[in-house]
C-alpha cells in the first residue's frame, strides 16, 4: 500500500476561520474608516429630522381633517361640499392635461 504524504504547504495551511468571527472583524475594520459627525453636527441633523417629521405630521393631519369634512359633506349632500368636489375634479383634469402636454 502506497503511503501518501501531504505537501509542506498543506501542513502550514491555516484552519478555516469562522464566518461569524470574520464578519465581525471586517465590520470593525470598516467602522474604523467611517467619518463620524461631531456632537454639534449630529444634534443639528437631529433637529432637521424632527422638524420635517413634525411638519409632515401636521400637514397629513390637516389633509385628513379636510378630507373627512369633504366626505361628510358629500354624504350629507351638502351643496358646498359637492361644489368643492366638482372644482377639485375639474382642476385635477386640467392639471393632468397640462402635465401630459408638457411631457410630450
What this model shows, in words?
This protein is mainly α and 104 residues long. It is 77% helix and 0% strand. It has four helices and no strands. The longest helix has 37 residues.
Question: What would the keywords be for this entry?
Answer:
104 residues; mainly alpha; 77% helix; 0% strand; elongated
Please write the string of helix (H) and strand (E) elements.
HHHH
What Rg do the Cα atoms give?
33 Å
Beta strands, count: 0
Fraction of residues in helix? over 70%
Q: What is the structural class?
A: mainly alpha
Main sheet characteristics? none
DSSP helical segment count: 4
Shape: elongated
SS strand fraction: under 5%
Mean pLDDT rating? 88
Distance between the termini: 83 Å
Instruction: Point out poorly predicted stretches.
Output: none
Topology diagram in text:
Blueprint: H1 8-11, H2 19-32, H3 39-75, H4 79-103
Helix pairs in contact: 3-4
Kindly summarize this structure in a few lines.
With 104 residues, the protein is mainly alpha-helical. It has helices spanning 8-11, 19-32, 39-75, 79-103.
Amino acid at each position: 500500500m502506497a503511503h501518501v504524504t501531504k505537501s509542506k504547504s498543506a501542513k502550514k495551511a491555516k484552519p478555516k476561520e469562522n464566518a461569524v468571527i470574520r464578519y465581525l472583524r471586517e465590520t470593525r475594520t470598516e467602522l474604523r474608516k467611517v467619518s463620524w459627525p461631531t456632537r454639534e453636527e449630529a444634534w443639528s441633523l437631529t433637529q432637521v429630522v424632527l422638524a420635517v417629521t413634525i411638519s409632515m405630521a401636521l400637514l397629513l393631519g390637516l389633509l385628513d381633517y379636510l378630507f373627512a369634512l369633504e366626505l361628510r359633506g358629500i354624504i350629507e349632500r351638502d351643496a358646498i361640499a359637492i361644489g368643492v368636489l366638482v372644482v377639485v375634479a375639474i382642476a385635477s383634469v386640467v392639471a393632468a392635461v397640462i402635465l401630459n402636454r408638457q411631457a410630450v
